[in-house]
Structure formats: structure tokens, C-alpha cells
Write a structure and sequence with these properties.
It comes from Arenibacter certesii. This protein is of the alpha+beta class. It is 37% helix and 22% strand. The chain has 3 domains: 127 residues, no CATH class; 40 residues, no CATH class; 133 residues, Trna Endonuclease, Chain: A, domain 1, CATH 3.40.1350.
């Protein structure tokens, strides 16, 4: 799904290594992170001001008199001061360094280990830091640190799943980087657009005015000839449950505003359940159905998802 929707940046992964050994999704993100950090180093890392208390040979900043007397009674050429320094040792780099350490531990014995060590050597030495979800939530990204965005997103995934000091529970690895509702919608849209059918148009997030400058937009709109079909995708296991009343009301509104013949609530499943299109009460022209589509074919993704959906609408014969 990530590959089809172009959310998985496979160009970030060394293709030569892919043919030499099996690579898991985790390896891909490890290498993606290393590539992002390498790029940041080449482009030039950002420095920041910070406050530091230390012995210096020239008086600068605020002299910490009590500590100065305690430490420098013999070394009168030194001054213990609190002063500002402008360097690479700040929170963003401390987070990236922690992620590098985790990759180093988990990649031992793999092709990534030597690359990780090389990146660590190029990366500046920074103070260790304890990181949790709140650390990422409080991060402030400005114009200068905007290029760090991708690296920090992947660092979040790595640290919150694998750091030994994280005790508040793991975050879902894919969900950290991807909204599965959005991914499922984009995947279905891509599979429908890949079908070459004369007269069929497929559009995603088409909007219509609703009320007071508010617009509504179904996930996918299909058109063939004079017929219109609306699809709203939901990434959740419906099971034996019925869709919510709010979802059905939403489909009714879509039917009205797009004058669609049929509206479909589409859920992923491990077993296909063909939809039964039923007319809304008092409105025989507009029908709605719930469809559960098996996203797998054995151990692989079902490549016929688009064709199956069109067959449900009576637009395609999958056995032809």
C-alpha cells in the first residue's frame, strides 16, 4: 500500500542491497533515517545558543564566585563562569543522536551497522538526553530547522518503539508516520485510477459547497456515462457491527449533493462481503451499501481491489 500510494520512498533505500538480502520495513526506515542525517550533515547542521557552566581561561559571562573559589584555588589562571556557547549540542541533535545509538544496537550484524557507525562519526558529539512522547510534542520547528522534519519523524518512530527508557507503552510504528484512514483511501483511489476503462473517470476528494462556505467531499467519486457513484473509505474492522448512523447520514448527503446512483461505505477485511445496495427510505433513486473487501490474496495484497469495486457497481466483469 505504501509503495502504490508513493508514501514509501523506496529511492531512499540502496537498491543493490535489496537484491542481496531480505529487508524488512524496519530496515527501510533505519536506512531512510541514516540517509536523512547524512544529508543534514552535508548541508550543514544548525547551531544554537545554550547556557554552559564551566572552567574557562578567559573571563566571560557570569563568574560563579563560590564554585570558582572551590575549583580554582590553585589554578588562578582559570575562571568558573556561566556563559553562552554557540554549538551543535542542542535538543534536536540530542534526539537524532539517541536514534543513531538505537539503530547501532539493533543493526549489529547487518549491512546497516557500518553505515550507522560512519554516520555517528560524522555527527557531532552531544549530551545524552531522556526522550518521551512529550519531548516530540514540545519541539518547536522554525525556518532554520525545517529540513530536520523528516529525520525527526523517523526518530520519533525509532525512539518511542525501541528506547529502553520508554515505559509509557509503544506507539504503533506505521501509525506514527501514516494515517491509515488516509493511506487506505489513497490506495483504493490509486487502484481504481489504474484501471483503463473507456468513459470512466475517478476523482478523489472532490468537493461541493454545503453551507455557509463549508464544503463537503466524499473520498472517491466515480462517473461513467450519466451515472455517478460515491465511495467513502473507512480503515477499521467492521466485523458483525453496523456502520454508524453518522456515516449513513453522511452517505445520504453525498447521494443528494452528487446525485449519485449508489454510495458505498468501504471497509478492509480478511473476507470479502459483497454489498447489498438498499434504497434510502422514501428515495428509491439513491442507494447505499456497506462493502467489506479482502485486501489480501494469500500472503500478498489483493491486486484486483479496483476491479472488484467496479464489479460491485455493475461496471466491470472481473471474469471477462
Amino acid at each position: 500500500m505504501l509503495r502504490v500510494t508513493r508514501r514509501l520512498k523506496v529511492n531512499k533505500v540502496g537498491q543493490a542491497r535489496v537484491s542481496k538480502q531480505q529487508i524488512h520495513l524496519l530496515d527501510i526506515y533505519f536506512e531512510w533515517f541514516l540517509n536523512e542525517v547524512e544529508l543534514l550533515v552535508r548541508q550543514g547542521l544548525v547551531k544554537k545558543y545554550r547556557t554552559k557552566s564551566d572552567n574557562v581561561k578567559a573571563l566571560k559571562g557570569k563568574l560563579e564566585f563560590a564554585t570558582h573559589l572551590n575549583k580554582n584555588l590553585i589554578h588562578k589562571e582559570r575562571f568558573y563562569t556561566t556563559h553562552q556557547v554557540y554549538d551543535y549540542d542542542h535538543q534536536i541533535h540530542q534526539i537524532l543522536a539517541l536514534a543513531l545509538n538505537i539503530i547501532s544496537q539493533f543493526s549489529a550484524g547487518t549491512y546497516l551497522y557500518s553505515k550507522c557507525k560512519r554516520v555517528q562519526q560524522e555527527f557531532p558529539e552531544v549530551a545524552p538526553i531522556a526522550v518521551n512522547a512529550a519531548t516530540f510534542n514540545k519541539l518547536v520547528i522554525n525556518r532554520k530547522t525545517k529540513p530536520y522534519g523528516t529525520a525527526l519523524e523517523i526518530a520519533r518512530l525509532i525512539i518511542l518503539n525501541f528506547a529502553p527508557n520508554i515505559t509509557s507503552g509503544k506507539e504503533n510504528m506505521l501509525a506514527l508516520l501514516f494515517d491509515m484512514n488516509s493511506l487506505w483511501e489513497e490506495y483504493v483511489l490509486a487502484k481504481l485510477k489504474s484501471i483503463n476503462m473507456e468513459g470512466l473517470t475517478v476523482k478523489g476528494q472532490e468537493s461541493n459547497p454545503f453551507w455557509n462556505r463549508i464544503r463537503i467531499r466524499p473520498d472517491i467519486v466515480l462517473r461513467k456515462g450519466d451515472s455517478t457513484y460515491v465511495i467513502d473509505t473507512k480503515w477499521k474492522n467492521l466485523g458483525i457491527n453496523k456502520p454508524s448512523t453518522d456515516d449513513l447520514r453522511q452517505m445520504y448527503v453525498y447521494n443528494e449533493y452528487w446525485d449519485s446512483n449508489k454510495a458505498l461505505l468501504l471497509y478492509p477485511s480478511l473476507e470479502t462481503q459483497k454489498p447489498d445496495f438498499i434504497a434510502f427510505e422514501g428515495d428509491a433513486n439513491h442507494k447505499c451499501a456497506v462493502g467489506c473487501l479482502n485486501i489480501l490474496n494469500g500472503n500478498s495484497l489483493n491486486q484486483k481491489i479496483g476491479e472488484e469495486i467496479l464489479e460491485w457497481f455493475g461496471l466491470y466483469n472481473i471474469r471477462q
